[in-house]
Amino acid sequence: MRPESHEKPTPVNPEEDRFFSLFRNTVSAAQQHKLIRSGDPDVMAQILWSGLHGAIALPLNLDRLALEPPEQATEHMIDALLEWLKP
């Protein structure tokens, strides 16, 4: 959670973010080669990024819960996301 003393940044279009653009372009290329399911590449990139981020960050940021460590949670999340991506 952002401390109240820090202002919320002005959101930018995800296409302006280098990492997101690379991720989205990879999704789009994989779709063109029929390696993954069809769908909006922007949405799919956000879902993939969110899933991986959550698997890593949730156990670290919610240390009040006895969650699996990121090393284990990430492996399961990657498996789940890869299953979701199947054409």
Main sheet overview: none
The global form is flat
Helix content: 55-70%
Beta content: under 5%
Mean pLDDT: 91
- Alpha-beta classification: mainly alpha
> What's the helix-strand series?
HHH
The whole-angstrom Rg is 16 Å
| Unreliable segments of 5+ consecutive residues | none
Structure, briefly:
The chain is built from 3 helices and no strands.
Write the SSE topology:
Layout: H1 18-32, H2 41-61, H3 70-85
Helix pairs in contact: 1-2, 2-3
Describe the structure.
Helix content is 60%, strand content 0%. With 87 residues, the protein is mostly helical. The termini are far apart.
List keywords for this structure.
87 residues; mainly alpha; 60% helix; 0% strand
